[in-house]
Amino acid sequence: MAQEDVFKKLVAHCKEYGFVFQSSEIYDGLGAVYDYGQNGVELKNNIKKYWWDSMVLLHENVVGIDSAIFMHPTIWKASGHVDAFNDPLIDNKDSKKRYRADVLIEEQLAKYEDKIEKEVEKAKKRFGESFDEKQFKETNGRVLEYQAKWDELQGRFVKALNDSNLEELKQIIIDQEIVCPISGTRNWTDVRQFNLMFSTEMGSTADGALKIYLRPETAQGIFVNYLNVQKTGRMKIPFGIAQIGKAFRNEIVARQFIFRMREFEQMELQFFVRPGSELEWFQKWKQTRMAWHQALGFGQENYRFHEHDKLAHYANAAVDVEYRFPFGFKEVEGIHSRTDFDLSQHQQYSGKKITYFDPELNESYVPFVVETSIGVDRMFLQIMAASYAEEEMTSEDGKKDIRVVLRIPAPLAPVKLAVLPLMKKDGLAEKAREIIDDLKFDFNCQYDEKDSIGKRYRRQDAIGTPFCVTVDHVTLEDGTVTIRYRDTMLQDRVKISDLKSIISGEVSMKKLFAKL
């Protein structure tokens, strides 16, 4: 199945099974804004807990805060967002659709990469086990041709970005013969910059209102609280401040479902270090964060680091953790060495001293910062994409069937246990309710008595429930139940009294943390 079709099925699955809904759907929706349904909010909360506990519980020198969305407008002047938080946009005159110029060029680069990979895949099938991928890429004529085109385009693109050369970005689009996906034409406008911040007014009267912004990132809330946390927590450098919160960006090119939205949630750590040690800590956090992603078990080959070609104005090092989505490798997390830019800017604009006295060095300095920033929504999409599977099954009567299953890691699964009475009568439903009542304070449990057991199993597979327990007449005689495992579909007969320990060992976050 084509990856594009897989993604369409995934989007449909998210709605059908209560994971993600279009916001304001009964009013025809609101572009690039989504709501999380009953299963989606559970998965999202579990993702946030996995991140929060891995940061705050596993690191003695990391604490958390929750800063306000509304902040003093001068903060955004100091951070550079008022003057420099822009995207290069280009319109197609025929379709009237607007695009990010840099994204169009990145997609063209990805097309060259796809062509190289197709040549490699064909060669693998042709040569079998004797295939030497490295040698093939270095000698095959077509691969070398595509690689040369990629190298040339990448070089022009990086230079144009670093020079903020909007005319060159348009020229690249023209030279590469990039067409609008809607109209199919190359009738482009000039490239221009567009600020992404939402603004509003705070105040009781129009004359006295203060123009403020919905925060485009959560990081600044940490920076302006740096001294408060450091002093009240008696924190010693190096130390970190973690935060989970909403951010808002007026994305003109918002697409690929929840991958890029106008209202989204971030999980960010700002780690404060001595000047001169920031690149060492950058490397440490780079490895720590990759381990966090790979602990989920979705295959190391599906992750990679992407070094930034153009550094943000505040950074001296930057790398993305990318995951292989159905639409290609895309960023799920950014790790940046932000130097002392943010704290120094806030010190200058506020007129307040933001320094740290280091008793070991017997000197004061403005700390440098290493940041890890991950989008909750992108992480949600990544887990859904990695977990979604369709498996062909053969029933006892020989009929073919398709099982749709979400292989979500058990600690993150929205529902941990489904309890299913074989039938409603003979006291089976009541016994099933007893089991639910005993375990519902330990796990998120679900009771289901409608349809055949097979159909109920399929429903639980589709939302990623790792365990199903069936209560039958034997249960009433000896206190045992049938437990069915989602991934293998194997079934065991176990005592009701053992359920808690069996399930606890699999759904605990400790199982993930043990891999870090």
TrEMBL record:
It holds the Pfam family HGTP_anticodon. PROSITE patterns: AA_TRNA_LIGASE_II. It is found in: Cytoplasm. Residues 156-421 form the Aminoacyl-transfer RNA synthetases class-II family profile domain. Keywords: Aminoacyl-tRNA synthetase, ATP-binding, Cytoplasm, Ligase, Nucleotide-binding, Protein biosynthesis. NCBIfam families: glyS_dimeric (TIGR00389), PRK04173.1 (NF003211). Catalyzes the attachment of glycine to tRNA(Gly). This is Glycine--tRNA ligase.
